[in-house]
Amino acid sequence: MTNLKRLHRPYGQSPWLDNLSRELLTSGQLHTYINQGVRGITSNPTIIANAIAGSTLYDEQIKRLAYEGLSTEEIYWKIVIDDIKSACDAFKGVWEESNREDGYASLEVSPTIAHDGTATLELARKLWKEVDRPNVMIKVPATEECIPVVETLLSEGINVNVTLIFSLRVYKKVAGAHSASHQLHKRNNARSVASLFVSRIDSEVDKRLEEIGTDEALALRGKTAIAQARLAYDIFLDNFAKAAVVDSDSSAIQRLLWASTSTKNESYDDLIYVSGLIAPLTVNTMPEDTVNKVVDHLPEELESISLESIAEALETVQKLQEVGINFDDVYQQLEDEGVKKFEDSFTELLEKLESKK
Fold first, then answer.
1. What is the arithmetic mean of pLDDT over 50-56?
2. H-helix segments, 110-248
3. pTM here?
4. Does residue 18 sit in helix, strand or coil?
5. What is the per-residue pLDDT for 182?
6. Which domains does the chain have, with CATH numbers?
7. Which candidate, 308, 197, 302, 296, places its Cα nearest to that of 256?
8. What's the first-to-final CA gap in the chain, in angstroms?
9. Would residue 139 show up in a list of annotated catalytic residues for this protein?
10. What value does the mean pLDDT take over residues 100-111?
11. Which residue among 85, 139, 223, 293 is the active-site one?
12. Percent of the chain, pLDDT > 90?
């Protein structure tokens, strides 16, 4: 059994790939990953920008669409929708075998409308219709303006990947939006994951701990992200454990997805955000490099998140607050930076497409 398959059985975690490119689709590499145990795929504007800029495989389609008179942004959506359709088709078998729990490909709405709920709702509906695959997930940012959109989309039967979650407060709202779409009079088969960003938390908090500089502060470096993720899992249990006991495959369960799980600090274990976040009914979406590391050397003995580790996580967060970490400020900065990063990537991508066109 491969290490990726070990994550799913016996640990109940689904490994997804956080990368999408036409080369991945046409070279056969994606099918290799699926055979090794990858159970879904995610994308974002940065990933797509890198894919298009670094490949000539899109050039003929860009040329053809340009001759047809499409605008640069229209060309972008044609390209990405084609790739997402192909990814959905590649994962269709996983989707069917897993009773619709896995096998999804995620497509993000435009980051330029992250603070416009109405525009996000309209675009999400449009993308859902144009992709026309039951195993696509539309990525919606967890901004204040867009969280209400999640309930609406799910109630309409549209699968949603809620992205750019950094704080536990926001995650509670996201979980509530999912639950609200599954009341007795709103039962539906739409699936949802809540994407909590992990490594970026450590990157930002570690920087602040080093600025504080005390022994107590420095001793807490590299502990924030896993502690917060474990506390998020505690919230998940509060919201969805009952549904999981009744039917672990139920669409009423919104699984937690660990996003941004590559190790940014080379002094940390290269799989710190994989082996430290094993838990049933979770997803870990990893870049290719991390996937390959899991294939190569996942530890033989793994421990799932426990009530004891959740209690320890709470103590860690309390210590971080005591040494001077303002989590509200950290969360807001990371959300603002996350939205801007994707906006910048989207703008850069359109500029590169315009140049190629």
1. 84
2. 117-131, 147-155, 168-180, 199-212, 215-218, 224-246
3. 0.95
4. strand
5. 84
6. 3-356 (3.20.20.70)
7. 197
8. 46
9. yes
10. 96
11. 139
12. 84
